[in-house]
Amino acid sequence: xxxxxxxxxxxxxxxxxxxxxxxxxxxxxxxxxxxxxxxxxxxxxxxxxxxxxxxxxxxxxxxxxxxxxxxxxxxxxxxxxxxxxxxxxxxxxxxxxxxxxxxxxxxxxxxxxxxxxxxxxxxxxxxxxxxxxxxxxxxxxx
Length: 142
Ligand SMILES: CC(C)(COP(=O)(O)OP(=O)(O)OC[C@H]1O[C@@H](n2cnc3c(N)ncnc32)[C@H](O)[C@@H]1OP(=O)(O)O)[C@@H](O)C(=O)NCCC(=O)NCCS
What we know:
Layout: H1 4-14, H2 21-29, E1 34-41, E2 46-56, E3 59-67, H3 76-90, E4 95-101, H4 105-113, E5 117-126, E6 131-139
Parallel strand pairs: 3-4
Antiparallel strand pairs: 1-2, 2-3, 4-6, 5-6
């Protein structure tokens, strides 16, 4: 909860339709299912990114990931995603999925680098602007 101000600042800089603070609060309280992690810059001692996922038995959903615009393209997104994939695989997860805007080339390239594959399209899933979501998945058994 103490990290929320910094996380909300990054969230607002990163998305046209940001999550509300109450959404993050609900996630933090959803103990055992929702796992919110922050990445802290060792020198500047500030939060530069976060990733939030759900783990239900062997199934993982990445529900949010963002890096502060000033710290993008330094490998932070990749490091956070790798951390979650490794940690959940060690805990027995076998399937990971997420949704991404069709136009989000940066995020799509990140997921592609890890081997995520298209699973489905959710028509008009996003607003501000209206856009389809691509559902991507990764089989951790492969
Ligand atoms: C997507 C996001 C988290 C990536 O974070 P990042 O720390 O900048 O990414 P990294 O530096 O770890 O890049 C890892 C890989 O992602 C891809 N990538 C990241 N940014 C990219 C860009 N702007 N254009 C193309 N590919 C990009 C590349 O494949 C890159 O690998 P490379 O460095 O070997 O080329 C970041 O752009 C972000 O916060 N975007 C806004 C929020 C968002 O869209 N979240 C995803 C919602 S589904």
